[in-house]
Specification:
153 residues; alpha/beta; 7-stranded mixed sheet; globular
């Protein structure tokens, strides 16, 4: 994998073992996404989610697993995964959800996939207040959106 993948897909997970494989498969099968990584962040699950995450990571080098030492809730878990991410773009995906085909397609707006971008994210972005160095791009479909690292200097 290159030093910096195009996308890091952040998957916070708490007791979502039965759904985790579907979420990860929907990410890894994205057409046109280029190089990507999946960061599964386990929030001290008690249902075997961690074992499922480790099995997925053992089967594909693009998957990494981080685990909280204590339960941090969805926001803290998501932030822990974002901190571990290395991609230019950071997409958020809950462990019990799945991406629609083409969600991460390159060559268009990473927020909506349109070649001309969209009204919500056409380069304006909004600061993602809790993570310095990231901008939140709004998702017109009402989803969690996509984050982009701000260029320094």
């Amino acid at each position: 994998m290159p030093a910096r993948p195009a996308f890091s897909v952040v998957v916070p997970c708490y007791n979502a073992g039965p759904y985790l494989a579907r979420a990860v498969r929907s990410t890894l099968s994205q057409p046109g996404a280029g190089e990507l990584e999946v960061i599964i962040a386990d929030d001290v699950s008690t249902d075997g989610s961690l074992a499922e995450a480790k099995a997925l990571a053992a089967a594909d080098p693009r998957i990494r697993v981080v685990r909280n030492a204590v339960n941090m809730g969805p926001g803290g878990t998501r932030n822990a995964a974002i901190a571990a991410a290395t991609g230019e773009w950071i997409a958020l995906l809950d462990a019990d959800d799945a991406f629609a085909e083409g969600r991460l397609a390159q060559g268009g707006c990473p927020c909506c996939g349109r070649s001309e971008g969209c009204r919500s994210c056409r380069g304006s972005g909004r600061p993602y207040a809790r993570r310095p160095g990231l901008r939140r791009l709004r998702d017109p479909a009402g989803g969690p959106g996509v984050l982009r690292r701000q260029r320094s200097g």
